[in-house]
Design a protein that fits this description.
This is ATP-dependent Clp protease proteolytic subunit. By secondary structure, the protein is α/β, with parallel strands linked by helices. It has a domain of 146 residues: Alpha-Beta Complex (2-enoyl-CoA Hydratase, Chain A, domain 1), CATH 3.90.226. It is 47% helix and 18% strand. The chain is built from eight helices and nine strands. α4 runs parallel beside α5 and α6 crosses α7. The chain is globular. The N and C termini lie far apart (81 Å). The C terminus is likely disordered.
Amino acid sequence: MLQTNRHLVRLISKFLFQLENNIAKNLHLSSTRKMGIPLVIDNDGRTERVYDIYSRLLKDRIVCVMSPIDDHVASAIIAQLLFLQSDSSKSPIHMYINSPGGSVTAGLGIYDTMQYVSAPIATWCIGQASSMGSLLLCAGEKGMRTALPNSRIMCHQPSGGAQGTASDILIRAEEIKRLRQRLNEIYSTHTGQTVEKIHETLDRDRFMSAQEAKDFGIIDRIEIHPGSIPADVTSPGPAKALVEP
C-alpha cells in the first residue's frame, strides 16, 4: 500500500512538473510572438484601478481604430461610440485612426453610427488612413478633422470578387457598383468635391500626403504639436523643423 502511494506521488509530481514546463513554454512563446496590451494604473487619490490602455483612453472619450476594419472591430467601435453618446451627448469624442481599411459594410456601420450620435466626433489620422479608414477620417465633425504631418491617406473605389453562375456574378457586380456610387456620395458630402470629381479621383488608388488630403477636403488641419498647426508641410525641410525648440 505504501509503495503504491509513493508511486502515485511520483506520477503526480511528474505530471505537475511537465504541466509547469508547458505553461512556462507557452507563456514564453506568447510573449515573443505578440506584444500584449499595456496596462496602466489610474489613481484618483483614494483608490487605484488597473485598466488596459484602450479602456483608460475610452474613459477620456478617446476611441482607437488601429487595425484592419472587419465586423468584430466595427462592433467594438460602434459599442464604444454608443456608450460615449449615452455618457454625454455634448462632450466631443476623439477617434484616432491608423488603419489600412477593410470591409466596406463594416466601415459603413461605423460611419452611420458616427452620424447617428449627437456628440461631435474629432477624427485624427496617425500613420495611415486608407480605404474605409479615409472615409471615417473625413466623416468627422467639420473643423475637427486632423492629420499628423507624416500621415498618408489613400482612397479608392471598392473592390470584391464573385463566383458562381453568370447571373450571380452580375448581381455581385451591380452591388459593387451601387456601393461605389454610395461611397462617392459620402466622400462628396464631407469633402465638398463633386460626385463626378470623386468618381474620377477614386478610379484607382489615390495616395495623398497630409497637405494633399487637406487641399482635397478630407481633413481640415495638420498638426505637429497640440495647438500648433503648420500652414504647409508639403516640403518638410530639415528635420529640426518638426522638433519642438
